[in-house]
Design a protein that fits this description.
It is built from nine helices and no strands. With about 190 residues, it is mainly α.
Length: about 190
């Protein structure tokens, strides 16, 4: 992962494609969509904007690679890890523990939702939401719920996640752990 580097005056740090998407993810989390701008990102990283342009022809390409990285790390890798569990109960508990964890602030998620109208973000956000809801629906089906009921529980679970993420960003002092209660309520028949 990207690590902050001290740069002496006049020196230039070389960054690779992954460094730039990590820097852009941090900027997105801290300042929203408008913070993903090439010149400020380069200055922040102690590099030239040419270094960014070496890897990405424009801001939209950087943004595209950044949201695709977010998709891989915050959806695909999470599902992969959850699937390593054996029972539906363990899968749901692991999933909730990961996404409702107090240390995951959800600011990237909130920034992406705020920028949902952006032509680069919109299709990735749509794809991620469908993938997450599909996965949750399948998981609730494993608990024995019918398709319609499993979908409703998936929507409730996803809404709980988004609500918690929003509260961590805007009302951090009010957020309390809800893992055990969420699992109990969502799996009750």
């Amino acid at each position: 992962m990207f690590s902050e580097r001290t740069v002496a005056y006049g020196s230039v740090v070389r960054r690779n494609r992954d460094d730039w998407t990590e820097i852009a993810l941090r900027a997105l989390a801290e300042g929203g969509l408008s913070a993903v701008a090439i010149e400020p990102l380069a200055a922040r990283a102690g590099a030239t904007k040419g270094s960014v342009y070496h890897h990405f022809p424009n801001r939209d390409a950087l943004l595209q690679a950044t949201v695709e990285r977010w998709e891989r790390e915050h959806t695909e890798k999470v599902i992969e890890l959850v699937e390593s569990e054996r029972t539906p109960e363990d899968k749901l508990r692991t999933l909730f523990a990961m996404v409702l964890d107090r240390t995951r602030k959800g600011s990237v998620e909130m920034a992406l939702l705020a920028g949902a109208g952006n032509e680069v973000i919109a299709p990735v956000l749509q794809r991620v939401t469908e993938k997450r809801l599909g996965y949750l629906t399948d998981l609730f089906r494993q608990f024995g719920f019918g398709k319609a009921q499993a979908r409703k529980r998936a929507l409730i679970a996803f809404s709980l996640y988004l609500g918690q993420a929003q509260m961590w960003v805007s009302l951090p002092g009010l957020v309390e752990p809800v893992l055990d209660e969420a699992v109990r309520v969502l799996t009750a028949k």
